[in-house]
Amino acid sequence: MDYPLFTKLAAEFFGTAILMIFGNGSVANVELKNTKGHHAGWLNIAMGYGFGVMFPVLMFGGVSGAHINPAMTLAQAINGLFPWSEVLPYIVAQLLGALLGQFIVYLTYYPHYKETEDAEAILGTFCTTDAHNDKVNYFLNEMFGTLVLVFGALCCLSLPWGKGDLAASSIVVGFIVWGLVTSMGGPTGPGLNPARDLMPRVLHAILPIPAKGSSRWGEAWIPVVAPIVGAIVGAWMFVFFFA
Question: pLDDT tens, 111-155?
């Protein structure tokens, strides 16, 4: 069924919001002071992001394709898999959805933001940072991580077995994200999605959080540009070898 553009945009908006609630919500649960899940560990975060992608793809994959990621939208358009006329509306919906999802995380964890004194922990609940303070490594990690994500997602959702069972392929895409966070997430987080990093970073800059520290805008271009580059290459690989 071909849905109207408004319905597709609603799916992208709510899908990206859900991604943020599950993903950055899991980080807030682990990193912020006095939560029930404080110090629960990296697997808790990986699970949050895996489910944060899995559920929107299950819910909205048949409506909008559940890109929930500007890098995925741009990569598909550049490689002839998505109409250019819908690229800008999709990206706007994704950015606004990320903004809403992150604001919900902030509201639900508000008392814990006030109690947390570690600026790095607070920033990590909003956006990515490089653990080694190395911008080259930051770029490479985000680029290759997104390449694997987009290549894997397109293979799962677009090859005959995935088209024949969208629920199964959606679950596998969630496991791809879960696996990527556990395997390649150490250096940066990871973001793998410009909307997931940029809009929460904007909120970090403007929200009144006592010990939040710097929003690190000097490196904010990396988790925007690197995922787009990786996504374009990943989508090209899918088209060249399998489409």
Answer: 999 999 999 999 999 999 998 889 999 999 999 999 999 999 999
Quick one: CA torsion of 37, 41, 45, 48, rounded to 10 degrees?
-50
Residues 21-59 pLDDT 10s: 999 999 999 999 999 999 999 999 999 999 999 999 999
pLDDT class of 1 with cuts at 50, 70, 90:
confident
**Residues in Cβ contact with 147 at an 8 Å cutoff, skipping those fewer than 6 apart:** 230, 231, 233, 234, 237
For the beta carbon of residue 233, count every other beta carbon within 10 angstroms.
18
Q: Is 128 exposed, middle or buried (0-12, 13-18, 19+ CB in 10 A)?
A: buried
- Helices 87-108 and 194-206, axial angle in degrees (round to 10): 50
Q: What is the pTM of this model?
A: 0.96
Query: Is the CATH number of domain 5-242 1.20.1080.10?
Result: yes
